[in-house]
Amino acid sequence: MLDELEMLKSGDADSIAEVFSRHRDKLQRMVWFRLDRRLYGRVDTADVLQDVWLETSRRIEDYTSNPAVPFFVWVRQIAFQTIIDLHRRHLGAQKRNVSQEISIGKQGCDTSISIAAQLVGNLTSPSHAAIREERLVRLRAALDSMDEIDREVLALRHFEELSNNEVADILGIQKTAASNRYVRALKRLKQVLEADSDSGEFME
């Protein structure tokens, strides 16, 4: 199998598309996790990935002329910026207070909100709206108390399902540090969830 960088440098559209497709599943998980839930049903992940692909194609020569990071790290950043632009376009003009922002979804790719919304969305019945709101606020506060890098390692490993090496590349830290931070963050998350007995099943 040809090296990814060789395929990208060839400038062949099919080769570039093949390399991009190798990372599509990971990018799709990332988009689903980071996208504000208010946009579910309004913005399709396939459309987001299409925008990412178009931007990748447009800028591929910039990458191949100076491939300072692995291709996935580079294209994931394009996806991240695409999501931020979508949030600004669809939600930027909406006025809301802090509690409304927490209750409705995720704005600006905030990792704490992303994790909290994922957990509450998975574990709470839609009929328990008041409980869901209270739990979301508690989870957000607990997650905000974590070290920022630990929180991001947790999101990348546990929710985007990336490897330890990919996490290290994305955050620019040593692989051993990424591994140690993940263990610490997972332990902290378990403590947070155990505080809500109804959420304990997440860790089982």
What is the strand and helix layout of this fold?
Layout (H helix, E strand, L loop, with lengths): L3 H6 L3 H10 L1 H11 L10 H21 L5 H21 L6 H7 L6 H13 L5 H16 L3 H12 L4 H8 L3 H21 L9
Helix pairs in contact: 3-4, 3-5, 4-5, 7-8, 7-9, 9-11, 10-11
Q: What this model shows, in words?
A:
The chain is mainly alpha-helical and 204 residues long. It folds into 2 domains: 4-91, Orthogonal Bundle (Rna Polymerase Sigma Factor, Chain: A); 98-196, Winged helix-like DNA-binding domain superfamily/Winged helix DNA-binding domain (Arc Repressor Mutant, subunit A, Orthogonal Bundle), CATH 1.10.10.10. 72% of the residues lie in helices and 0% in strands. The N and C termini lie far apart (39 Å).
Task: State the end-to-end distance.
Answer: 39 Å
Shape: globular
Instruction: Enumerate the spans where pLDDT stays under 50 for 5 or more consecutive residues.
Output: 95-108, 199-204
Radius of gyration: 18 Å
CATH hierarchy, class of the largest domain? Mainly Alpha
Which structural class matches the secondary elements?
A: mainly alpha
Number of strands: 0
Instruction: List the secondary-structure elements in sequence, H or E.
Output: HHHHHHHHHHH
The tally of helices reads 11
Share of residues in helices: over 70%
The CATH architecture of the largest domain comes to Orthogonal Bundle
Largest sheet: none
CATH topology name of the largest domain: Arc Repressor Mutant, subunit A
Counting structural domains, the number is: 2
Q: Give me the CATH superfamily of the largest domain.
A: Winged helix-like DNA-binding domain superfamily/Winged helix DNA-binding domain
Per DSSP, what share of the residues sits in E-state strands of 2 or more residues?
A: under 5%
Mean pLDDT: 83
